[in-house]
């Protein structure tokens, strides 16, 4: 059943359709800087199938005011500047949808329909948008009592070119571009700044269309500098939050968001930068991120930041994903999907979430039961996958899901102790997804079946909620890598002596013992891994284990330890596959710090990287034979070491590439002897960003990723 209108309504993020509370002419009929013919030019509104409502030819700037319910109002307001390259305004996903989201956390959202630098409408093109932005901020303060807003809690937000406008308004808040009445005597300085994938610079690396529209064809160097936000940061620049895709192909991450963040940090301006590697389009213009399994979390991060700064007291639930199997006709849904019908967005190849997708209806099959729903595939039944992992997201609304095909070949099974993953386990699922790994949930009640199916998966995770009696030694002989979170399974897996494990109380940090190993995630010394004291798992590994980190620095209480495939386990047997013990105890992964999350990602990545070194005959060699390790340090500036291990004399080529696949440098291209090798890569000539390094040794190849931050 195809129903585009209903689907578009459902996809709107946290959207309960309601009219704005007010539409206000910000200049009260006295708009400055207009041409004589501006009044006769009609505003243009179009509906784009991808971007929704687009507005251009604006001659009467207004704000649409969306006020939160009185019982949750925080007194905070945000002026929202939609993007559109200074040629149009993306009114839906960068405008009123954002305002309504702010309302859910008790914040007033005011969507600004600002004048674009159109010479047929404005006399001085480059000041018209900033005139309107400053006026909107002043208007909020003028109407503060009427709208229940604290004049000292007024921020400005912008997306793309709207981000450039918001940033410009903030750094030039002391400038007076116009004054028509008493409102213009109020401060135009925002108390905070929020930027979504912003245009920042007007110099090299800018968005060419935005620059041409705002500044014309041949702006002076002085004008370019004046409208390059990163060059105008001063002590009055407000606290700033930035969300962006690292692989943004429209407005490059560097020299826009990354450069701005570095300048803010150097100037001691409180600032946060959240960077996402978008795996689904769009990599630019993703709005609130509701179409993405990466950037969908950024509004949640924003709410946390605003709460920490006293601008809201409400933080929504973190978006989460559930990973389930799809057969030919049925899909299992989480219990939250309680509506009579659920709409699924997909096209014929399961590349989802574009506005031109086909929409199918999933209807309840068994009365009130919602755990098994039938998929109506009559429209495109010949193109549906017959088997495989799919990602089901329930983050938009409880009655809304979307489906996309996962990356082939990076599947894991997560054995848990209940029929569904708890909050702690969902955090692990989310972290695994960040590392590019899709986890299928299996309960410890079906472990025997799980063992039989383990060959289908690339790795196995055993939660600390499982019963050690039910799981026992079931996974001990598997050749697949196993990550063990349940301490009671350490001895049953042969990783420690009998009962040589435990939990340490009231722990927030661990000590890195082996900072040269990639499992250390580039960390060293004492590292805070939890935001509050909890119990930390530990085990006492054998002498052949790699001991990465320990509780209180005691090697006998290892928080992270690993056995490569082929290593001798504690009991003298040989590890059929990689084995890794990890410190996260029950109810603790939800409070992991960034360092704790980095260690978990490193553990998951290490397990898959090592198992992927497959020779031409399809066998998996011991990781100690052929291995490419994570560069150290990472991130780095300006140099880093890349280490690898060779099993025999062979011709080796080690090369560095940029994100577009262009060769940057060949570090090694020669015949080398077996053993360990280390090469330094110096990046004095490169700009900040992510780079790949690739090792080729005869018929084997491995790839790593590193981050240069100036």
Provide the residue-averaged pLDDT.
Answer: 77
The tally of beta strands, per DSSP, is 36
The CATH class name of the largest domain reads Alpha Beta
Main beta sheet strand tally, sense and closure: 9 strands, mixed
**Corresponding CATH superfamily of the largest domain:** Alpha/Beta hydrolase fold, catalytic domain
* Overall helicity: 10-25%
Count of alpha and pi helical runs: 13
Characterise the protein shown here.
The protein is an alpha+beta fold and 710 residues long. It has four domains: 21-308, 3-Layer(aba) Sandwich (Rossmann fold); 320-406, no CATH class; 407-613, Rossmann fold; 627-708, Immunoglobulin-like (Sandwich), CATH 2.60.40.1930. 18% of the residues lie in helices and 30% in strands. It has 13 helices and 36 strands. Strand 19 (411-416), helix 10 and strand 20 form a beta-alpha-beta unit. The two termini are 52 Å apart.
């Amino acid at each position: 059943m195809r129903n585009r209108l209903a689907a578009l309504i459902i996809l709107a993020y946290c959207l309960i359709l309601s009219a704005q509370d007010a539409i206000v002419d910000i200049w009260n009929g006295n708009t400055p800087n207009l041409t004589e013919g501006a009044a006769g030019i009609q505003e243009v509104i179009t509906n784009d199938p991808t971007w929704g409502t687009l507005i251009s030819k604006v001659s009467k700037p207004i704000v649409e005011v969306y006020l939160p319910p009185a019982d949750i109002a925080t007194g905070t307001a945000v002026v929202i500047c939609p993007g559109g390259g200074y040629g149009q305004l993306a009114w839906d996903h960068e405008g009123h949808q954002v305002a309504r989201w702010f309302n859910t956390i008790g914040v007033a959202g005011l969507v600004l329909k600002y004048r674009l630098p159109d010479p047929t409408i404005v006399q001085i093109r480059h000041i018209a948008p900033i005139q309107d932005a400053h006026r909107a901020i002043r208007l909020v303060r003028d109407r503060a009592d009427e709208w229940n807003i604290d004049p000292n809690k007024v921020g400005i937000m912008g997306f793309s070119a709207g981000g450039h406008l918001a940033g410009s308004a903030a750094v030039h808040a002391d400038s007076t571009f116009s004054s028509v009445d008493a409102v213009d005597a109020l401060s135009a300085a925002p108390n905070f700044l929020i930027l979504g994938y912003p245009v920042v610079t007007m110099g090299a690396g800018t968005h060419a269309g935005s620059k041409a529209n705002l500044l014309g064809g041949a702006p002076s160097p002085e004008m370019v500098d004046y409208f390059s936000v990163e060059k105008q940061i001063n002590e009055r620049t407000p606290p700033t939050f930035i969300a962006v895709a690292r692989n943004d192909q429209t407005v490059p991450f560097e020299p826009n968001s990354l450069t701005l963040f570095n300048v803010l940090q150097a100037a001691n301006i409180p600032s946060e930068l959240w960077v996402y590697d978008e795996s689904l389009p769009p990599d630019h213009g993703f709005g609130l991120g509701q179409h993405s399994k990466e950037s969908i979390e950024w509004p949640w991060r924003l709410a946390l930041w605003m709460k920490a700064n006293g601008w809201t007291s409400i933080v929504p639930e973190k978006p989460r994903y559930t990973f389930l199997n799809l057969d030919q006709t049925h899909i299992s849904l989480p219990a939250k999907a309680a509506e009579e019908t659920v709409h699924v967005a997909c096209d014929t190849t399961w590349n989802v979430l574009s506005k031109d997708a086909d929409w199918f209806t999933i209807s309840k099959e068994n009365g009130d039961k919602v755990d098994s729903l039938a998929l109506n595939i009559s429209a495109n039944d010949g193109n549906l996958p017959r088997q495989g992992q799919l990602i089901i997201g329930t983050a938009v609304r409880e009655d809304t899901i979307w489906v996309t095909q996962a990356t082939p070949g990076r599947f894991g099974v997560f054995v848990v102790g209940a029929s569904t993953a708890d909050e702690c386990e969902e955090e692990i699922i989310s972290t695994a997804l960040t590392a590019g790994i899709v986890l299928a949930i299996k309960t410890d009640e079906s472990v025997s079946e799980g063992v039989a199916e383990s060959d289908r998966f690339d790795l196995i995770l055993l939660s600390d909620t499982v019963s050690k009696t039910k799981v026992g030694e079931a996974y001990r002989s598997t050749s697949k890598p196993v990550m063990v979170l349940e301490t009671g399974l350490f001895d049953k897996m042969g990783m420690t002596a009998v009962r040589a494990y435990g939990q340490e109380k009231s722990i927030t940090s661990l000590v890195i013992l082996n900072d040269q190993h990639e499992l250390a995630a580039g960390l060293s010394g004492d590292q805070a891994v939890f935001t509050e004291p909890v119990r930390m798992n530990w085990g006492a590994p054998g002498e052949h284990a790699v001991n990465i980190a320990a509780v209180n620095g005691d090697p006998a209480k290892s928080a992270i330890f690993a056995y490569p495939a082929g290593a001798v386990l504690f009991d003298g047997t040989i590890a059929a596959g990689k084995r890794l013990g990890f410190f996260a105890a029950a109810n603790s992964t939800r409070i992991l710090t960034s360092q704790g999350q980095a260690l978990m990602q490193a553990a998951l990545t290490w397990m898959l990287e090592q198992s992927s070194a497959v020779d031409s005959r399809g066998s998996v060699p011991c990781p100690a034979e052929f291995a490419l390790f994570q560069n150290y340090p990472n991130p780095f500036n300006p140099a880093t070491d890349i280490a690898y291990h060779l099993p025999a004399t062979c011709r080796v080529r080690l090369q560095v590439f940029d994100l577009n696949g262009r060769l940057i440098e060949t570090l090694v291209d020669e015949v080398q002897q077996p053993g360990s090798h280390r090469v330094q890569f110096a990046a004095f000539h490169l700009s900040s960003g992510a780079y790949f390094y690739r090792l080729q040794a005869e018929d084997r190849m491995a790839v790593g990723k590193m981050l240069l931050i100036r």
